[in-house]
Amino acid sequence: MTARLGHARMLDALEAQVGLVRFALGGGADLTAPVTSCPGWTIRDLVVHLGTVNWWSGATVREATPDERTRGMSAVTRSAPPASEGIAALTDWYAGLAAEMLGTFTDTDPGDPAWTFSGPGRADFWLRRQLHETLVHRWDIENSLHGPAATTPVSEDVAVDTVDEFCTVMRPHMADHVPPLAVTIRLRGIPHAPEGSAAVGLAAGAEPVGATALGGLEWQLPGSDGTDGVEVAGPPETLALLLWGRVGTDAAGLEITGDRDGLVAALEAGLST
């Protein structure tokens, strides 16, 4: 599935998310603080994970072997400095891996061959994947260290693509590893400005959000045959955080109609791994 963002916009947005991760880790962040949205993980665990997958995406693009996934993640994980060296050492470790990833995406043609979750594909699959991976985990870090009020708002065009990538790429990829949906979930993004006007939060130079399946800003996660449906409408960023399990059905701005209990059950069971 093609991203709703142009290559340059995705690259700029990913660079911004990397910068926000580094900023959030500044000021003596506690490496042992729990990540409330990733039970069992500490801040150090999360940063090591993010640095490793950022590296993996870049390495996969550099190797350009579309029929085989890139190896070496375990060695990168082991290369992370121990907690005893402090937050500055871990931040530098992460920054180096992220810079290598960004350099790879900058220097690589988006259409170059690369392995993807669905087999042979394009290099820009990984730019898109790491944009949203880094965005969600940046939110995790900010929320865990500073609280939900301190999380950085996401530009609306980027948030729309976060929802789209979840629905069209990640949920199908994870379908064999998560419970089937007991309810059909229909999502409708409500932009900050009326359709046809200059929406607040859309960055200059961004490609129009546009529509793929189901029209304007609508997506559907199908449940089992014969299941009831529920519609969830709200700001694209809130929808993205809901899908990734970062906020619940009581999040501000959400409008839910239909089988609310079925939605809650689906979220509790987990939409993603």
Low-confidence stretches: 194-215
How helix-rich are the residues, as a percent range?
40-55%
Shape: globular
Radius of gyration: 19 Å
Tally of contiguous helical segments? 8
Spatial ordering of strands, largest sheet: 4-3-5-6
SS-based structural class? alpha+beta
Question: First CA to last CA: what distance?
Answer: 20 Å
Nearest-integer average pLDDT = 90
How many extended strands? 6
- Write down the oligomeric state: single chain
Biggest sheet, in brief?
4 strands, mixed
SSE order, one letter for each helix or strand:
HHHHEEHHEEEHEH
What fraction of residues sit in β-strands? 5-15%
Explain this structure to me?
The protein is α+β, with helices and mostly antiparallel strands and 273 residues long. Helices cover 47% and strands 10% of the residues. The protein has eight helices and six strands, in the order H-H-H-H-E-E-H-H-E-E-E-H-E-H. The strands form two sheets. A four-stranded mixed β-sheet has the order 4-3-5-6. A hairpin with a 2-residue loop joins strand 1 (113-116) and strand 2 (119-122). 39% of the residues are buried. The model is unreliable at 194-215 (pLDDT under 50).
